[in-house]
Amino acid sequence: MSATIKCVNCKESVVAKEGRRRIFCHGCGNKVFDLDEQSSLVNCSKCGEEVELKEGRRRAFCDNCGTKAIDLDEIATTPASPAKNKDAPPKDNPESAAERRTRIKKLIKNGAGIAELMENGATFADISMSGFEAHELMHTKKDIKAFEKLTRSFNLDDFGFGDLGLDDDDFGDLGLDDDDFEDLGLDDDDDEVYFGKYSGSSSSAQQGKKRGNQKECELEAEFEPMCKDGNSVKLSDVAGLEDVKETIRGMILAPLKNPEIFKRYGSEAGGAVLMYGPPGTGKTMIAKAVATEVNANFFYISSDKIVDKYVGNTEKKIAALFSKVRKNLPAVLFFDEFDNIASQRNSENKITTMTVNALITQIDGMKKDTTGMLILGATNVPWSIDSAMLSRFKNLYLPLPCAEGRAKIFEIHLKKNLPKKGLNFEYLADETEGFSGRDISNICKELRRKLAIRELETGQTQYCDMETIIKKINLAKRRPRPDVSKFEAYNEDHSESML
Predict the structure, then answer these.
(1) Angle formed by the axes of helices 437-458 and 466-477, to 10°?
(2) pTM above 0.70, yes or no
């Protein structure tokens, strides 16, 4: 039963629906009535006259026509009618498993997530046979929780067989027998395809293993080493940073080039080194140079290649990456912007936690035999990296280039294919104190571009002179420079790990 009640405050009519214990006015927000507290004005449903429901009374009758205007006990005890699902089958005509799967597929095509599918009676088999992968049906956090409930007996990291990606061992926790398969609407063929060895068919188990190997190969195909012919950078090409290059030769190159000697003294070649410093100091260039010096395959990895928003995919990609590297030894595995991949773990960011855990597992496994594999990381914010991850790396600080190094960088970039007059590289180095190698490189590239444009406009050869370069340097000085003191302080605290 329902009744129309007038708000005492604004006189708006408010409908008291079945199952509600208190009503609020949509016009002014005032509480129109509470079943046990307040009196209200009720409109008679027959003649429309106002009837007062006095405080403490449970029912009221119209004085004009005698009709019962409201009975609070009926409103409180009569349950609200549940929303009807137009796609749900009538109770007197239960649907078959095939019909249910057809209905579930229709809901999926209309954008339904796992939570909505479960509310509509979907089973694990329905979802697995829908032709959609599980992560495609997880649109909200509610869907993720529903997915966890649906697969409570499973390890989500291993969830991926067939369309959903489960392996044979996962089904053991379900304890399914032949009768259960009949209830799910599966025949013998479905049993063999989806449940491998539990169907008694060894060939189907081999097919499942073959599919798993195929997916692993597909993941590994995403990580290809850089062509050796395309990577010709050597340490001698890196201007300045003489102390850093000397450290690299002793800490990295010597063990990789002479593994037998170092092994006799119980020191393995390879390992993991974290390069840190201000932006533009040549971290990526040095990583490529190391790979060239030891004639190794170079794998360049950024965070977008391995971090995935779907549960379990990041760990699979990391495992596939290390598997690919081991098949292409000797190899240098370079993680650019390492802080995006291995930042501090916390309870709020589960993706970061899973990524760091997977990386630590692979690095610890690599320590059993590091011969031929070197991991290099580069970061501008080493203090943001997870402490457990840092403990597994040697630290290498790359500072801004000194005056001699800056002069060498100018000489390298302005030496070839450029008409020039009276350049003083030492003076240019003095004018660019605090500049990184990338800053100087950008100045030279911009200068070359401007000179080329001028020649097109005038038809005359343009010469690079000191006045033109100084103008470019003065423009570059307006840009903000990184705070080097923070890096130097961090280096003082962590420099011992270079030894």
Answers:
(1) 130
(2) no
* CATH tag for 228-397 (out of 3.40.50.300, 3.30.70.260, 3.40.50.2300, 3.40.50.2000): 3.40.50.300
Residue 160 pLDDT greater than 50, yes or no? no
Q: Which residues contact 101 (CB under 8 A, 6 or more apart)?
A: 126, 129, 130, 185
Q: What is the pLDDT of residue 62?
A: 82
Q: Is the pLDDT of residue 241 over 90?
A: no
Mean pLDDT, the chain, rounded, equals 76
Nearest to 128 by CA among 81, 78, 66, 174: 174
Residue range(s) in the chain whose domain bears CATH number 1.10.8.60: 403-484
CATH topology of domain 403-484: Helicase, Ruva Protein; domain 3 (1.10.8)
Nearest to 336 by CA among 271, 288, 269, 399: 288
Contacts of 137 (CB under 8 A, 6+ apart): 108, 112, 113, 114, 117, 127, 143, 147
> 19-23, 96-100, 186-190, 464-468: which has the minimum mean pLDDT?
186-190
Specify the domain boundaries for CATH 3.40.50.300 within the chain.
228-397
